[in-house]
Write a structure and sequence with these properties.
The chain has two helices and six strands, in the order βββαβαββ. It has about 130 residues and is of the alpha+beta class. A hairpin with a 2-residue loop joins strand 2 and strand 3.
């Protein structure tokens, strides 16, 4: 990959919620795609689901999946994720949901507690994906 020669391509899909600001759902450069953080917004309703953190973790990961499959990739092609939580105490519950989608060899991952997230939600997940 020659980043100086490769052009960035915007990735957009209806399988994930649209951007809520001046950014793209994802950007592909060469054989790598960088997703924006995915909030747990249901793309069909535009709403964040109520319930335990696990419900929103599933939705955020499904939103990632929509973007990942839009470029013909899968969770097996994810090389790095970052999970943002407003309560690191939710880590174990989110980790259990995460393990339902990501299988060995697992991508690299960071999990970070933050003071706040957009739309007052409690989880956001982003990924770097290998595009074949």
């Amino acid at each position: 990959m020659d980043l100086a020669k490769d052009k960035k391509e915007v990735v957009a899909t209806g399988a994930a919620p649209g951007a809520i600001g001046p950014y793209s759902q994802a950007v592909k450069v060469g054989n790598l795609m960088f997703t924006s953080g995915q909030l747990p917004i249901d793309p069909a309703t535009g709403k964040i689901p109520d319930g335990p953190i696990s419900v929103r973790a599933h939705q955020a990961i499904k939103n990632l999946q929509g973007i990942i499959t839009a470029v013909g990739s899968s969770f097996d092609d994810v090389v790095k994720t970052t999970v943002f939580l407003t309560n690191i105490g939710d880590f174990q519950e989110v980790n259990a949901v995460y393990a339902e989608y990501f299988k060995p060899p697992f991508p690299a991952r960071s999990a970070i507690q933050v003071a706040a997230l957009p739309l007052a939600t409690d989880i956001e997940i982003e990924a770097v994906v290998l595009v074949k």
